[in-house]
Design brief:
This protein is α+β, with helices and mostly antiparallel strands. It is elongated and about 65 Å long. 24% of the residues lie in helices and 32% in strands. About 15% of the residues have low confidence. The strands form 2 sheets. Strands 7-8-9-12-11-10 form a 6-stranded antiparallel barrel. A 5-stranded mixed beta sheet has the order 2-1-3-4-5, sandwiched between helices. It is built from 6 helices and 12 strands. A hairpin with a 6-residue loop joins strand 11 and strand 12. It folds into 2 domains: 112 residues, Rossmann fold (3-Layer(aba) Sandwich), CATH 3.40.50; 102 residues, Thrombin, subunit H (Beta Barrel), CATH 2.40.10.
Length: 230
C-alpha cells in the first residue's frame, strides 16, 4: 500500500516513527507543491494529512485540489493526529472527514480557500465601486507580476505566484497611458490556492496613497464589459 504523508516538521517526525507510516513518502508543509506532484504522478492509495496542517490554508487547499481531480477519486484522504494516533478517513471516492476545531477548523478554512472573499471588507476598503477587470491585465507588487481580478480606486483583488501575507506592506505599480503609477498598499487578506496550473496566492489589496484619478482611468480602460457595480 502506497502512502503520501504530509505534516509540519515536528509532527512529521513523530508520524514517521510509527510503523504504519515508516515507509510513507513524506513531505513537510513547506513542500506542499512537491507533495501534490507526487500525488498526481504516483496516485497513492492513501494521502495522510496531519490535522494541524489540515486546518491551515495550505492543507485545506491541498484537500480541495485532490477532491476536485477526478483522476484521484480512488485516493483515500486520511486526517491523522501526531498526538493521539487517531485518524479519520474519507474512504475511497468519498469526502474527507476533516476534524473541525470550531469556526477556524479545516472545513471552514477549506471553504475560505475555495471561495476567497470577493470584497475587501476586512480592512474597510469597499468604499468605492469595484469592477471586474478583463483577463491578462498585470500589475507589479514589490516588482513581482500579479494578475488583476477586480479593481476600485481604494483596493484590488489579485492573483500572484509570489507569497502575499495579511498585513504585509507592499508597493504596487502599473502603467496608465504611458505614465508609470506607483503607490503604497497593504495586503488585507490572502488565500493559498492549488489549481492545476500550480500554487498561487489570491489576495485583497488595500491602497494607502494611490492617485484615485489615475486608478480610475486605469480601471475604465481595463474593466470587463459586463462588470457591474457591487
Amino acid at each position: 500500500m502506497s502512502i503520501v504523508l504530509i505534516a509540519e516538521p515536528d509532527q512529521l517526525s513523530v508520524l514517521k516513527g510509527r510503523s504504519e507510516y515508516s515507509d510513507a513518502q513524506a513531505f513537510t508543509d513547506a513542500e506542499t507543491p512537491a507533495a501534490l506532484e507526487a500525488i498526481m504522478t504516483g496516485r497513492p492509495d492513501i494521502v495522510a494529512i496531519e490535522r494541524i496542517f489540515a486546518k491551515k490554508s495550505r492543507g485545506a487547499a491541498l484537500i480541495n485540489r485532490i477532491k476536485a481531480d477526478t483522476s484521484l477519486e480512488t485516493v483515500e484522504i486520511r486526517i491523522v493526529s501526531a498526538e493521539s494516533g487517531a485518524s479519520k478517513s474519507s474512504g475511497r471516492g468519498g469526502s474527507a472527514a476533516v476534524p473541525a476545531a470550531g469556526p477556524s477548523g479545516a472545513a471552514a478554512t477549506a471553504a475560505a480557500v475555495a471561495t476567497p472573499p470577493a470584497a475587501l471588507d476586512q480592512k474597510g476598503t469597499r468604499r468605492a465601486p469595484r469592477f471586474r477587470i478583463i483577463e491578462g491585465i498585470e500589475v507589479l507588487i514589490d516588482g513581482n507580476p500579479a494578475m488583476l481580478v477586480d479593481l476600485s480606486t481604494v483596493g484590488a483583488q489579485v492573483v500572484s505566484g509570489t507569497l502575499l501575507k495579511p498585513n504585509q506592506r507592499v508597493r504596487l505599480s502599473f502603467t496608465e497611458g504611458a505614465k508609470p503609477v506607483r503607490f503604497s498598499a497593504g495586503v488585507a487578506w490572502s488565500a493559498f490556492e492549488l489549481p492545476k496550473a500550480g500554487p498561487r496566492y489570491r489576495a485583497g489589496i488595500e491602497f494607502f496613497d494611490a492617485d484615485p484619478d489615475a486608478v480610475g482611468r486605469f480601471c475604465d480602460t481595463n474593466r470587463a464589459e459586463d462588470s457591474k457595480r457591487n
